[in-house]
Amino acid sequence: MANKYAYNNKDVDEAKVARAMAKSLKVSPKHCVEICNALRGMEVSKAKAYLNDVIEMKKAVPFKRYNRDVGHRKGMKGWAAGRYPVKASQAILKVLENAEANAEYKGMDVENLKIEHISSHRGVTIPGYRPRAFGRVTPFNTPTTHVQIVLVEA
Questions:
Q1: Which pTM does this prediction carry?
Q2: Class of residue 60 by CB neighbours under 10 A (exposed 0-12, middle 13-18, buried 19+)
Q3: Which residues pair with 61 in a beta bridge?
C-alpha cells in the first residue's frame, strides 16, 4: 500500500536527512506560508531563535505575498511589510523541534543542521456557522494547514 503522507522532496539519501510533518494544524495557511519563506535555508539554531523572537514580538515576519493592508515594521531588511504571527510561529516551532529530535535519534550532528525544505499547504476547512438575526446563519469556517520540514547536515 502506498504511503498516504508523502514529502515533497523524494530523491534524497535517507541517512542524511531528518523529517517532520504536522497535518491539519488550526493556524492560518497564509501566515504559515510567510513564515516558511522566511525560514527556508536557515540553520536550525538560528530558525529557533528567530521563531522565539517572533513569538515574543521582537522580530517581524516579512509578508511578501499576503501583504495587502499590512503595516510596516521597524528593523526589517529589504522588506517593510510584516506581522507577528504568534500562533503560527508556535506551531511551526513545535514541528521544527520535532524534526530536530528525529535528527538526534538518527545520530546526526544536531549543531550543524540546516533547513533544506520547509513548506505549508492548505488543509481541509472545518465548517462552522454563526447564528444571525431573524433565523439566518453565516458561515464561520476554520482553515487548517499542513506543514512539512526536512533537515540536512550542513
A1: 0.91
A2: buried
A3: 83
DSSP 137-153: EEE--B--EEEEEEEEE
The C-alpha atoms of residue 101 and residue 120 are separated, in whole angstroms, by 20
Cβ partners under 8 Å of residue 108, min gap 6: 16, 18, 151, 153
Taking residue 18's Cβ as centre, other Cβ atoms within 10 Å add up to 24
pLDDT in tens, 19-69: 999 999 999 999 999 999 999 999 999 999 999 999 999 999 999 999 999
Of the CA atoms within 13 Å of residue 69, those in its CB half-sphere come to 0
CA distance 150 to 125: 25
